[in-house]
Amino acid sequence: MSAQANFPRLVRKLRERTGLTQEKFAAKLGVTCPTINRWENGRAKPSPLALKQIEDLLRDLGEKGRDLLKELLGAEE
Questions:
Q1: Nearest-angstrom CA–CA distance, 22 and 75
Q2: Cα–Cα dist 31/45, whole Å
Q3: pLDDT tens for residues 40-68?
Q4: What is the count of structural domains for the chain?
Protein backbone atom coordinates (compact mmCIF):
# COMPACT_ATOMS: atom_id res chain seq x y z
CA MET A 1 0.00 0.00 0.00
CA SER A 2 1.39 3.40 -0.90
CA ALA A 3 2.09 6.13 1.66
CA GLN A 4 -0.61 8.27 0.06
CA ALA A 5 -3.19 5.53 0.45
CA ASN A 6 -2.13 4.90 4.04
CA PHE A 7 -1.52 8.54 4.99
CA PRO A 8 -4.25 8.73 7.66
CA ARG A 9 -2.55 5.95 9.64
CA LEU A 10 0.86 7.56 9.18
CA VAL A 11 -0.35 10.93 10.54
CA ARG A 12 -2.03 9.29 13.52
CA LYS A 13 1.06 7.19 14.32
CA LEU A 14 3.32 10.23 14.12
CA ARG A 15 1.05 12.20 16.41
CA GLU A 16 0.91 9.33 18.88
CA ARG A 17 4.70 8.86 18.84
CA THR A 18 5.21 12.53 19.59
CA GLY A 19 2.67 12.30 22.41
CA LEU A 20 0.66 15.21 21.07
CA THR A 21 -3.08 15.75 21.01
CA GLN A 22 -4.65 16.73 17.70
CA GLU A 23 -4.76 20.31 18.99
CA LYS A 24 -1.04 20.41 19.89
CA PHE A 25 -0.03 18.59 16.73
CA ALA A 26 -2.03 21.10 14.67
CA ALA A 27 -0.34 24.01 16.45
CA LYS A 28 3.10 22.49 15.80
CA LEU A 29 2.34 22.27 12.07
CA GLY A 30 0.53 25.62 11.85
CA VAL A 31 -2.82 24.14 10.85
CA THR A 32 -6.16 23.82 12.61
CA CYS A 33 -7.31 20.88 14.71
CA PRO A 34 -10.10 20.04 12.23
CA THR A 35 -7.41 19.80 9.54
CA ILE A 36 -5.55 17.14 11.53
CA ASN A 37 -8.83 15.35 12.08
CA ARG A 38 -9.55 15.36 8.33
CA TRP A 39 -6.05 14.03 7.59
CA GLU A 40 -6.45 11.23 10.13
CA ASN A 41 -9.85 10.29 8.73
CA GLY A 42 -8.70 10.37 5.12
CA ARG A 43 -10.98 13.24 4.12
CA ALA A 44 -8.11 15.57 3.17
CA LYS A 45 -4.42 15.44 2.29
CA PRO A 46 -1.68 17.74 3.61
CA SER A 47 -0.27 20.51 1.49
CA PRO A 48 3.31 20.20 0.20
CA LEU A 49 4.47 22.53 3.01
CA ALA A 50 2.72 20.41 5.65
CA LEU A 51 4.25 17.27 4.13
CA LYS A 52 7.71 18.81 4.47
CA GLN A 53 7.00 19.69 8.12
CA ILE A 54 5.82 16.13 8.75
CA GLU A 55 8.98 14.78 7.11
CA ASP A 56 11.09 17.05 9.34
CA LEU A 57 9.26 15.84 12.45
CA LEU A 58 9.91 12.24 11.46
CA ARG A 59 13.60 12.97 10.92
CA ASP A 60 13.76 14.63 14.35
CA LEU A 61 12.38 11.45 15.92
CA GLY A 62 15.43 9.55 14.69
CA GLU A 63 15.13 5.79 15.06
CA LYS A 64 11.65 6.16 16.55
CA GLY A 65 10.35 7.69 13.32
CA ARG A 66 12.48 5.87 10.75
CA ASP A 67 9.79 3.36 9.70
CA LEU A 68 7.20 6.09 9.21
CA LEU A 69 9.71 8.25 7.31
CA LYS A 70 10.39 5.38 4.91
CA GLU A 71 6.66 4.95 4.45
CA LEU A 72 6.20 8.67 3.81
CA LEU A 73 9.01 8.81 1.28
CA GLY A 74 7.94 5.56 -0.32
CA ALA A 75 11.52 4.33 -0.49
CA GLU A 76 14.31 3.26 1.82
CA GLU A 77 16.76 5.91 2.86
A1: 27
A2: 12
A3: 999 999 999 999 999 999 999 999 999 99
A4: 1
Q: What CATH number does residue 40 fall under?
A: 1.10.260.40
53 Cα distance to chain centroid: 8
The pTM (predicted TM-score) of the whole model is 0.83
Taking the C-alpha atoms of residue 71 and residue 77, their distance in angstroms, rounded to an integer, is 10
Q: Determine contact, residues 54/14, Cβ cutoff 8 Å.
A: yes
- What's the chain's length in residues? 77
Q: How far is residue 26 from each of residues 1, 12, 29, measured CA to CA in Å?
A: 26, 12, 5
Per-residue b or e along 17-34, where b marks 16 or more CB atoms closer than 10 Å to that residue's CB = ebebebeebbeebebeee
Would you say residue 56 lies in a domain? yes
Q: Evaluate whether residue 2 is within a structural domain.
A: no
